[in-house]
Design brief:
four-stranded mixed β-sheet, 4 strands
Amino acid sequence: MSLVDELLETFSSTLDSSLILAIASDFSNDPKRRTEILEILNSLANNKPSSPDFEFASVTAEFNHEESHQSVAQQLNTLFPNVPINKINEIIKSSTEKKDLNSLIDVISLNQQSHHSNSLDLFQSSRTKKSKKKKNRPPKRSSETFHLTDVMHGDSKARLKEAQEFHKNPQDWFNFWVTSQSQAAYLSELLKINPSIVSSAYHNRNCNVVLSLQDILSNLERNKRAQLSDKDLEQLEIQLEFLKSVSNEPDDTLAKALIVSDLDAGIAFDLLLFMDELKKRYGTVNFNFFYSPLPHLSPAPSASTKALSPAQQIPIRSETGPKLQKKSAPPSGLSLMKCREVISDLEARRSIALRKASPAYTAGALTHGIYQQARSGISQVYSEDAKTLLNQIRHWEIKAAQLFVADRALTAGSRNSIDLHGLTRRQALAVSKSSLEDWWASTSRQPFQIITGCGKHSPQLRSILLPAVINELEADGWIFHQASPGSVIVTGSRLTT
């Protein structure tokens, strides 16, 4: 039997086998040291200290045994070489406790820890005082290429916009006619219709892709729905349930896509993806219905188009959307929900224009010469687009306010009064002015009441609309009197008396 097996058999009941193997391996199975191993294991098993050859003596005993010829100060200097000997002597003299080695070691250790923490705090405080605020350095500009013809026409808004869009994303700009022809070909192949139908609808809608697609789908749905049999209607319900599980579009949109695609769910789903892509690129149907400007280029490409430079082939169109007319009156069937949808689209496009104007302005301030002229022109283009869109937003906010007040008056059953609660100052003045003009043009000469509120919900409980309306009435020459703290009654006009 080997020594390890013998040790395991003897001490495995009281000691861990891994501990036995570790101690045995330290002695390399030397039979001469068998007694030492047994003594160590016996002391561990009986919870007794081992032999003096392998015990961990205390610091006091060790120093008393090995360095009995040295003084206590010399022993402490050996333990703490970083502490000067005079400092150790001071600690020994000032120590009120029993001057044994262990207590002195504890005192010196505590002094070193406190000194280290104080030094660290002092270092951190000095770093805090000396640290200076980092300067905001401008970001490194990436290398860009500007053609000389792009900056020679610095006063041309269209040229600068065209150059900026081309230099920023040249790979995203395809020729206008190639894109439209590709869309028309894809749609005719997807719906299995004559390409001339797509082209006719496209030109009838002034080259507006969204509205032309809407007309095509409406005509196809009307013609094909009349030809559906009872079996086709059952199949339509089944396919409609399937599309509901994979698309969030309304049921009427899903049903229209299924009908025009001859109840093929795969083709219908491709059509929905195509419609969603057009919506993201050109806006919603309602937005295109209210704002359908003519394209920047003529309806048909000319032979000289191929001779133009790549920048000239690109239509001058900003990413903020098509250029909007300043006075585009909505149709008579306009609703409050449609107004709010248009306002939401305009605000999104204005936000994009402002985000693009800021970095262009910053980059222009950091450049010189012709580059600064180009950058400043780009920023000016986006800023003007944002201003135009802001005017459009205010115009449609007034239209929405007029519809809101009209609906509230219709609900209240009052034809000769308006309630301006919930409107801004600009909206309230515009609505009151238009309402007074309509009232004065009518045959009725009953007094007209304008309700503004007395300011209970305004800051500092002071009315904001009432003074503004009174000033406006006085400037326009109306005859009125204040019937209550929150309303005004108009009885006539000074201009006709």
